[in-house]
Specification:
With 151 residues, the chain is mainly α. The chain is built from six helices and two strands. 64% of the residues lie in helices and 4% in strands. It has a two-stranded antiparallel sheet with strand order 1-2. A hairpin with a 3-residue loop joins strand 1 and strand 2. The two termini are 17 Å apart.
């Protein structure tokens, strides 16, 4: 398997391109071309309008969806939720100021989230759940000892 690893410069270029698209979508909304409840034009149209690839548009839309600024509905399109323009502008400004996360910050975030998840799971555990975990671990160990693929 060939996994292409992006250099820091390539990551910065992608982030800059996506942030430019986010700013352009924000302009469409602020100039009242798009309002809450409106459907965003299809990715193909946006790509042509902004002079970028559909993949870049898709990445920007996913980023805005993850922050609740856009909402995609299967077979219907991507919509602008009914949040105030001041709140939306503030959220978009925060997104644009995030930058490219470093590997260290991603690992630190993951550790914090995983520790909280483990704590929550431990509080909610049941004897039946523990028995299922033990069963899965035993099956895993048996496969490893017999030389089978245990992933």
């Amino acid at each position: 398997m060939n996994l292409d690893i992006l250099s820091k410069n390539e990551n910065l270029e992608i982030t800059a391109r996506v942030n430019t698209i986010i700013s352009q979508i924000n302009e469409l909304i602020n100039k009242k071309n798009l309002q809450p409840g409106d459907r965003l034009p299809p990715e193909r149209e946006l790509a042509e309008k902004f002079g970028v690839s559909r993949r870049s548009i898709h990445t920007a839309i996913l980023k805005l969806e993850s922050y609740g600024i856009l909402q995609s509905l299967p077979q219907s399109g991507t919509f602008i939720p009914n949040i105030g323009s001041i709140a939306m502008n503030g959220m978009i400004e925060d997104i644009l100021n995030l930058g490219v996360p470093s590997f260290k910050s991603l690992v630190e975030t993951r550790i914090v989230l995983e520790l909280k998840a483990v704590k929550s799971a431990a509080k909610k555990r049941t004897n039946e759940g523990l028995a299922n975990i033990k069963k899965a671990l035993d099956a895993h160990e048996k496969k490893i000892l017999s030389g089978e693929d245990a992933v």
